Amino acid sequence: MDNIITLNIGGTTFLTCMSTLKKYPETRLGRLTTSSPEYVLEKHFYFFDRSPDLFSRILDFYRNDEMHLQANCCSQLIQKELDYWEIQYSDIPQCCRSTILKKETDLKTFQKLKISTEIPLACDGVTECGNGLQRKIWLFVNEPLSSTPAKHI
Predict the structure, then answer these.
(1) Which of 32-36, 92-96, 143-147 has the highest mean pLDDT?
(2) Which residues, other chains included, contact 39 with Cβ-Cβ below 8 Å and sequence gap of 6+?
């Protein structure tokens, strides 16, 4: 049987074969040896102080040659994990890559909307708020307790 190794990822134990990891020698896991700084000699395992939440997907990449992701994964977290484990974004199949791209697009759209709808708390006359009319309208629509008429919409 192949050399079975133990990976401790943030306190969660994963077992795999060294040959599985060596399929991708250009990655962090593919370069592991017993002289790697992550190897804990007394315990005979490799320790990585990372969240184990996505690691099963990372390990599946080595086992199945592609990395499928859950739909509810944060695209920024995925990118950080790919960078840490030195796995290429192109190793994610198109079905999951399109989900990540959609989430990134949605996030950028949300950030643009948030910025464009922010109203300054202090208006500087005509130049910022058009004599305060824009602010009054915004308060009327968005803050129901700002006035008696606003309470009734």
Answers:
(1) 32-36
(2) 32, 33, 45, 46
